[in-house]
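Re: your question from the hallway

Yes, I did run it. Sequences:
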Amino acid sequence: MAKYVIKRLLGIIPTMFIIITLSFFIVRVAPGGPFDGEKVLPEVVKRNIEAKYHMDEPLLKQYGRYILGILEGDLGPSYKYKDHDVNYFIGNSLPNSMILGTIAMCLAVLFGVTFGILAAVNQNSWVDYLSMGLAVIGISIPLFVICPVLQLVFAMKLHWLPTSGWFKSGDSWATVVLPSVALSFSYFANIARLMRSSMLETLRSDYIRTAKAKGMKRSTIIFKHAMKGALLPIVSYLGPAFAGIITGSVVVEQVFRVPGLGKFFVQSSFNRDYTLIVGVVLVYSMILVAMNFIVDVVYSFLDPRISYQ
Amino acid sequence: MKFTDRFKKQIHDREEMHKLNKAGRNGAKNEFNQTVQGNSLSKDAWRRLRKNKAAVVGMCVVILYAIISLCAGILPIYSYEEIIIDHQYLPPSLTKTAGELMLKRQLSEMYATSWRQGRLSVTEEEDAMLNNWITLDDTNKVWNWCYEEGEKQRAAGTYVFSASEQKKYDRLQDSIKNDIQVTINSVRWVNPENGKSYKLDNLDYDTLVSIYAKALGGIDEQKVRTSLETGVNSQIQTEVKTKNSESELTAEDIQSLVAMEKDSLGEDGVQAKEKSLAVDNINVLIQNAMTKQIKQEIKAGTNKEFPYKDTETLFDDINFKVEASLKNSRRYILGTDNLGRDLLSRIIYGGRISILIGIVGTITSLFIGIIMGSLAGYFGGRVDYYIMRFVDVLYGLPYMLLVIICMAIFGTNILNLFFALAMVSWLTIARMVRGQIMSLKNQEYIEAARSMGAGGWRIIFRHLVPNSLSVIIVYSTLRVPEFIMQESFLSFLGLGVQAPLASWGSLIGDSTQGMTKYPWRLVYPAIVMTLFLFSMNFFGDGLRDAFDPQSKNML
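Structure:
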């Protein structure tokens, strides 16, 4: 087991390395640079600025410097916002994104599992049709449609919830509701469908029949016996789901004006703020890779049938 | 039974059997010597698909969308060239024309202003209600209420327009009744000597100048030449000025820059510019003359039926087609947007692009995925190892983020969009094809093909890929909506399709500004897009169930 964990941990290093290298070179290959504004800078000024950020050095040397910086935990200065470095931006905005993502994830799992179990237990009843209908809607409606529609209906027409803002910037707690619901919707749908099918399969298996034959209570069978086995596919779905939530947060943060990492990402890509782009990609991929790792380890704990090789 | 009868019956039976054998293609028989009718996989799947109502409905909707977007060019919708800039933000209406809607908007605006000035008599409660709506940002409600109340009071005679209001009202009424939109098409010049007709662009400079001079009322050609020259000069001057708007230039600097620009264009370049200026001017002249003529005819009381189409001749030898319609008699079923563009036609043209991207993107990713997957699956060993490790690493990347970077940095055009999306979406297909091929490649018929001397590529593309096609087809139908979603996601962020082109995503993205005031701009594209994704998903699910009935209760 320990061997497996170590092997997986070592496997993370090349992946991260590839991600950093790829994004580092992609952003620099492109035409235009961070200092190409509307105004053309005098040659001397431009050269001075480039010297300050070591951009006059050969590309490989810059790359080596950047990698060394990352090893020390320094993501470099931002090229666009003169007084701050990338660490500052990420430190400020990452917690907001994390809060949003975690709430959305919890909502999705909680409701998805509940609806999935209800649908499976009452197969072919109205409960089943209702929750599966809801799930199909959730899968078909894209996130960027749900966000403005929720905003229009619940904030602007019914005035139940605030339109935009973030509770940390002084707005009310209710600002969290709409973005997290919007973000969780399609994952809720997927989890509900997954839960239903795996629950149906489990309920047909032999050990459930045995438990029934022994005269166990229905609730005990469902919650103690069937649910454990049926949850396994959900756990393995959480990895890709988290990746989707990260990408989705770009839209949600833009629509609901949440001061999170996603907003920075799009902005910095337009600004050609090289270090900020690579930094944000790095953080996102770290989260993603860590999440996949955790899911794999947890999965092998939960399912003894899986071998660790 | 007589012997002959028995014999006849026997013959008859045999003939029947023969027919049956012919019907079953290879004449397979079961243990009771009955012919077994063979059924192909696709036939079987079609039979199962037809039973699935949701899938059939989905398929019909998808086909409908496909037909509409294919026929977009010939549908009676207002194309981009016929925008009327006055028709901004008109709400959707089935019955009312653009003019009526504009009138209603103007009236509600007037009544709302007069409510603020205290000229519209309202009770205290109503006043509070209106103020409350304003604090809630429900301007539309305020306007509607004011309009109804105002109309009621005007009809009852308790409300009278002020002089300026009356003037505004009259002017709008007049423009609704009389404003016409004149479009000039296919302008051709007929050479009076030989009767041949030419496009204006294809004429030489001197002929153009003489035509232009004639159109201006027969003035001196030399004057026309100088005016064209100065026109082009000022064109270049403005260009130079906008290019160097940052640095402060003296008049002399500009002069020298203009001269430089002209030098670089050369004699021919300058003349080409003068030519196009002349053509534009002639077109404007024709348009103005036609508009004037039709307006006069209206005033004189000739009842022209609108919309009206005709071929006319002006300035002796210029032929053109003219189309005239009442500007404000248009109907916008789904409303208009901030530039007066018809939302219906934008949705249709946008859908065209979205669906196209979905299909072409899927085909591209299929192409890459099938090649990579079949290479890995068929050759195995080291090739398989490297390809699959590569796929694994790519799977670990947050690829949507890389796509966003690519789009932001390499520029947002459709080709880049295809490229970026296709690059990241072949992974799953490659894995799937590899699995299929690995399970197929040890079958006897592959062995047979190989022993007959078929090469690797032939075996892959003639035997292996066609046999895994059903899985690939099913997967790709589920892939199309995902592609559309990704494209729209990028367009929503402003990184995908750029104006004047539209896609469903960019329409929704544009609509997020001013959502409360103009909700139709969000609602209709959202409904249209969701309906399509819905049907595509149902259709894909149905196809999967039809091709692989065992998967029914799985995800």
